[in-house]
Amino acid sequence: MTAAREKLFVALDTQDLGRAQRLAEALRGRVGGLKLGKEFFTAHGPDGVRAAAGGEPLFLDLKFHDIPNTVAGALRAAAHLRPAIVNLHASGGRAMMTAAAEAVREATEDLGHARPWLIAVTVLTSLDEADLAEVGQSGPAADQVLRLARLAQDCGLDGVVCSPREIALLRAACGPDFKLVVPGIRPAWAAAGDQKRITTPAEALAAGADVLVVGRPVTAAPEPAAAVERLAGARRPAPDIPVATAYLRGCPPRRRRAAAAVPPQPDPAGARPAMTDSFSSPPPSSEPPPGPVALLPVGRTVADAYRFTLQHVGQVLVAALLPFTLSLTMSLLGAGLGGALGFVATLVDVFAYAIFAVAWHRALLVGEPPRVLPQLGGRQLRFWLMSLLLVLIVTLLVGLPAMALSGLAAGGGGGPALGLIVIPLVLLAGYVAARFSFVFPAAAVDERFGLAESWRTTAGNAWRLIGAYLLALFPMIAVVFLLMVVGGSLLGLGGMMGGPGGMGPGGGAPGIGGPAGVVFIALMAVVNYIFAAVFVSLLSLAFRTCTGWVPDSGQAPPAAGPGPGMRMSVDAKICGLSTPDALAAAVAGGARWIGLVFYPRSPRAVSVEQAAALTAGLGPQVETVALLVDPDDALVERVVRGLRPGLLQLHGAESVRRVAEIRSRWETPVMKVIKVARAEDLEPAAAYEPVADRLLFDAKPPATLANALPGGNAVSFDWRLLAGRRWQRPWMLSGGLTLDNVKEAVHISGAPAVDVSSGVETAPGAKSPEKIRAFLELCGAL
Ligand SMILES: O=c1ccn([C@@H]2O[C@H](COP(=O)(O)O)[C@@H](O)[C@H]2O)c(=O)[nH]1
Q1: Where does the record place the Orotidine 5'-phosphate decarboxylase domain (predicted)?
Q2: What is the residue extent of each domain of the chain?
Q3: Against a cut of 0.90, is the pTM above it?
Q4: What ipTM, to 2 d.p.?
Q5: Does any ligand 1 atom lie closer than 6 A to the CB of residue 11?
Q6: Measured between alpha carbons, how far is 507 from 505 in angstroms, rounded to an integer?
Q7: Where are the beta strands (DSSP E) in 536-630?
Q8: 63 is catalytic
Q9: What's the 41 CA to ligand 1 centre distance in angstroms?
């Protein structure tokens, strides 16, 4: 069982004993345990619990809340059911929790049972700040959660129930051994229902949850066991693949567990499987951003699709060689065959496209360089079958009605009416195809992803997808047209427009002869494959953005640094912007982040008002980063409220706890700066990884430098210190980067992103738009 599944307790919230038993049976051995709560218990009592749990680790979720004597008695009674976890409400107070802890200890000792975790519910995950205010509790939910967690710990409880949003905060405050049992888990594909403080399973695991409690996403699924698989394997974009992250605002923490949690003691009676140590094993690496699935940024996605393809034209040709040969052979054969054999030739042609598209999807999504002779098998077959199925669906849904209607219209002499009928149908065809299109990248990366899932995950992005395809099409049409005209006139070929210029990669059968014609056709084929690669890239990028897919560690390209596979260019942050022209240069040049400094001593400092005015109207393609140095709460509050930055850069000596607190309290992703001069300066990074969303490695201000700033001193450090290092968090490099050294810095350190300030200035604080442009150009070409 994977670590993710072992940490999963499924809530069997039902009054139907048979259903609970069927669910338990379906989930037996697939999850860490089962949770039976008030609904089931009220209907079936302790005997029902025994009958339903059937020896699986049991979380008896009765959330006791009463006077100390009553809760202690209830827990003594509950001990007979041999639960692995029992709970109460922390708001019952100190005396109640202390009595409860004592009762659990005594009762299990008397019975000779293993002692279950006794945990306290802090603030229900169905409550948000507004709900809390209504019951007289003002302030962030996280404050109340932290207060109650500390009290519970003080009373000798093993842990708490908290929402995923407070995991990092509680880990920092209560230590690695304090159990965090986390409901409010919602993969992207599941409805939130009544839950409010939610996140994805991957995020909760990555943040350091000991147990994930999931109910309806599993129990309401047609196949609960399959839902567990999906949930445990649910993925989100990899932070270190620059393009993927460009679409997502903010990143949640991913934590490497500081220490193994202590599992409950083994059951001496041996009747109930104790939770294994793998409960505490670190989750597989994944980087899930919080919140809803991102909207697809149309312009940026198209630009990235072109950029990725054009940066790897050689690889496109490698990927195209076999498909092109196959396609050309079949086209030549098919041209002479016609009828059924011609149809077979078309099927082979589609298969050739599948070979190409699978290779290119994999190039982008998992960084696998294409090969001249790829391994052919299930992937291409699935892709091919999906292509045929989609053609069939679109034909049945749209093509046939269009033909019938246009026949009617033509018969009735309704020429103009024809357009009115056909145009909506064509739009419908595009819409349906776009909604189903995610099955293709999914097939290429071996994801189980059907039409229904594609339909679901494209919801809200369908028209953006269509817009992106149309936008991508314009340059293609222009280039093909140009080639036709130029090629036609150069070669003296008539009727070229009906020749081999189809947008499909295989092109048509050549209708022109002679060596010049062959060269021309070869050129068209190359162009066609390049454009096909753009489309495939576009689809891959959209898939990754909308579904949050991220490769398994086994198939992922290196998490950082230029690996042997294929990669996008280096992302850049231009920091310390204070003028509109510099900001415009950064945005136009493709900076992924723009940094604003809220540190009064800096020559780049801006006020919150200036910053807000400067960044007003910025599109989603660029993220605002607020640089703070040991900020007090009031400053963070002002900056977050006034600017709503996508990232808070903490550039001072903020402790791990403070970083966690800032992130959680202001619900804004944070980037912690690690200042480096020597190898040992990298060590603190590990402690910050659990609580920060990003790391920034900057040069340590030299002690000898008079009036040194916390950063931006035009000083660099030995980039070799970072070479080959892998971090759990996405990271970037800064410190004395300039136009002259950025290439070398990236090459040596393997940085996936860079941050520059003084290197694009003419004097401290005076940004040069020209230098910014040139710097970004360099990064784009790296
Ligand atoms: O704060 C809390 C405490 C407990 N729960 C319980 O967890 C499950 C969640 O079920 P879903 O169907 O996944 O929403 C449910 O049994 C709750 O009683 C919680 O959600 N929040």
Answers
A1: 7-231
A2: 1-232, 298-408+420-492+517-547, 571-781
A3: no
A4: 0.92
A5: yes
A6: 5
A7: 571-574, 593-597, 623-628
A8: yes
A9: 15
